[in-house]
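Table S2 (text version). Query chain:
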Amino acid sequence: MDGSSQSLPSFKNVDIPLVFLNFLFILFLSATLFTTSLAGRNFESPYAITIVAVNYVLMNLAFSSIWVYVMKNKMIPEEILHQLSTKRENIIIFAGILLQLASIPLAYVSTYISFILFIVVLILHIIRLWRH
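Corresponding structure-token output:
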């Protein structure tokens, strides 16, 4: 690695609540394979789409909880925090969670609408990460 690459943020300290939040995130992340496979095999079933959407929402809420906890407890150095956390980024993250929540009742209207919302959220996050 050359010296010009940007380093990842390092935590000042790690405590039990942060580890617990990380375990919750990993729990929902590990269920993603099953729920996505279920939705893929039963793509016309609103129930299957609801299960994957709920998993996505819970996974994003768990990850967002980690981020909020780290910010509130000042576990990332201030100069790095300002680079990572902008108002636009927080709006995109919140909008993604709202779109995923909206995909749950919309699955009973059309499962394809829910799939489109999943793709829109993915594109939003790719664009958000691309700008770093």
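Notes on Table S2: Residues 16-130 form one domain. The mean pLDDT is 88.
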